[in-house]
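quick one before i forget lol
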Amino acid sequence: MIDNHSSKRNINLVIGLGKSGFWAAKYLRSINKRVIVWESKDGIEFLERKTALEELNIIVSLNKEFVFEEIQPFLKEIESVVVSPSIPYDHITIIELKKKGIKVIGEINVAWEILKDTNWIGITGTNGKTTVTHLLSHILCDTGLYAPFAGNIGTPLCKYAHSKKHEKIDWVVAELSSYQIEISPEVKPNIGIWTTFTEDHLERHKTLENYFNIKKSLLEKSDFRIYNYDDKNLRNHYSSLSRGVWITTSFDKSNFIHCDYWIDDQAYIIESLSNYKQLPHRMETIYKNNDLEIINDSKATNFDSSIAGISSIEGQIIIIAGGRLKGNEYSEWIKVLKKKVKCVFLFGESSKVLKMALINEGFKKNIFEFSELKELLNFVFHYLQNNRVGTLLFSPSCSSFDQFKNYEERGDYFKKLISEKLKVNKSIFCSSIIS
């Protein structure tokens, strides 16, 4: 029960009981803060976390909406409100709290207070940031440093803050989404890396300019900045970005007058790279024989990411796409499909819109539309028995939120269905493909 008569600001209200909220609550309690947690949903996972936190004398409420009127009775006791990155920064309750002078922060801020004296690498970008984060962590660890990857990927930073392990960290390698950057202005990495920039998350940030400026703010706060010169949208903003190092993988150096470094096949870190294992759901090969490769690229949640994946493949491709549309800028995607894809299978909420877009923009090859993946794959395997194709690419090009809670769940479901299909159809399927 909350003591409404106390005038001391000592309550830290955590909104959201996902992994980051759970560890933020645990860490705050470990430094003797009073902690209350609200979660708008319920379910077994949340009940288990609720039980674990209540054992630490943390008050946890499930099915509790983030409403200002619910906070008002104990407003004078609140030290901070820690919000999930999924809550928009212009949420009406956040606006009201800030008007009252209440500190509204993210889990990253909470961890920053104890980890700010550690070396930080902050990595952001519309696409590619997870792979770069994971790869960079791997390279540093391979040289004997303790450089865990965290933030928007892997372990929440508050878990490290809660553990004595934080004292041994040489580098924090943090993937930082636009949502996290927006609510964590205090975070100032030693090194900032910007991988790519394309239109995304406009339902949250409203305009492309807002989205760009949020990403840009992380680099401006970094002591040392690294940009990807191969990304045309970043390159077009060369003059407006804070001074930093620009890197390309192009061998045509004469075209890159502003570029500082080139990466070639003589890079000394190639020993580190040779034992690097790719992350799941990012151009992940899940089956391969002499004639067919099946790739899971569930992380392709927008058209630009899908284009990058398709462009890296040689030979005949059939693609599986669909989900919840993030926008309607699919013209370039369709151009690539027209050049490289033999057949398109669509599923989910966007299937009808994408089918009409493909037809209207002159895609003349087969288009098949299904409501769900399971039904779709039944037909795909029948199609593969009668058509020679080099690659089956699962590249949704849309968010997963119409049928799944995230792209990982979507990718795992795809892999499960493929595994089941291969077990049932292996003798017929493989012999017909190989023959």
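fyi The longest helix spans residues 407-434.
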